[in-house]
Amino acid sequence: MNFVSLSCRRSLLAGIITAAAACAGLATAAAAAEIGQIKVCKGLVTVDRKGQALEGSIGLRLETADVVKTGADGSVGITMSDNSLLSAGPNSILALERFDFDPTTSQGRFDAQLQRGTLAVISGRIAKQSPQAMTLRTPSAALAVRGTEFVVSANE
Amino acid sequence: MVTASLAALLAACAAPQGSVVLLPEAGGRDSAVVVSQGGQEVVLGQPYAGAKLTSTGPQKYSSNAAEVQAQFGAAMAALPSRPAQFTLYFVEGRDEFTDASKKSIDSLFAEIASRPVPDVLVVGHTDKVGGDAANDVLSRQRAEVVRRALIARGIAPENVVAIGRGKREPVVPTADGVAEARNRRVEILVR
Question: Is there a single domain that holds both residue B131 and residue B55?
Fold first, then answer.
């Protein structure tokens, strides 16, 4: 697989970092820990995970407590395993605080926080199954998501 | 003096801390977002209903497509493709596609190929003819047939997961032992 071509910044250095991050991810991440995946990635995107900053890349699998950040030229699109879609514009910080999902029953809980920036959301199976089960917060407000498509900005 | 600084203070307090806008629904489903801030709550239930977040609580307003595009265009442009669902049907008791479903494989493959990092979940099902153990095996075999067909066409094996659910989840409820073509299926989710 050619990781260099998957890098958002398309620079060799970014490609090397991405490849290293992706390899480390393959070695350590259990399948059960995976909650979503980066599907769209432009410009500078990083993922803070357990004190480490990973270079964001198309295909990177995300875990609970990951914090996804975009730079001034960055944007990122994420598909969660309950089919929720989230995409952040430039200068955004999105924390995936909690994600529990039972694919058989669609029961679960999804809490995320947009600390800064802009975000588009299409809610998925968790919110459809239980209207109380998905909450998106900003530093000053809480959004209970009954469904399904909306945009939110915070502290721009 | 006092008035001026009070006005400045009020302006600072009312400075937007963000905004929320409900978008129109493609499928016309019920849609709403409840915005809570500082003990106050507003419900956004109509397309382009918006709320400005302020230190005095959420303030409702009407937004529009142009305004949303101007502020959120970059974020919206990065939305991933929506998940796509396919269903393929099988000949009774076999892991062989019906003739109609052989043709659907092409559109399934085209959908997967259109995505930069496809993630495919293949779930096999059976009708209610036969025992649980046999149907668990058959449903798994059906899912594996689809998985192998996709891998043979170039989809990376690590991106295709195949599981079987036996006869537990019929789309058409029937009594046990009833042959029902619509239940002999594999559901494929492409993300």
Answer: no
> Cβ contacts of residue A110 below 8 Å, gap of 6+?
A80, A82, A84, A98, A99, A100, A101, A126, A127, A133, A134, A135
Residues A2 and A7: their CA atoms lie apart, in Å, by 9
* Inter-chain residue contact A77 with B36, CB threshold 8 Å: no
Specify whether B94 is located in the same domain as B181.
Answer: yes
pTM: 0.83
Which residue in the set A40, A89, A143 is minimally distant from B33, CB to CB? A143
Write out pLDDT tens, residues B68-116.
Answer: 999 999 999 999 999 999 999 989 988 888 998 888 888 899 999 999 9
Domain that holds residue B156: 84-190
| Residue B3 forms part of a structural domain | no
Same domain? B104 vs B172: yes
- Identify whether residues B71 and B89 lie together within a single domain: no
Q: Which of residues 19-78 of A touch B (CB under 8 A)?
A: 37-40, 42, 58-59, 75-78
ipTM higher than the 0.85 cut: no
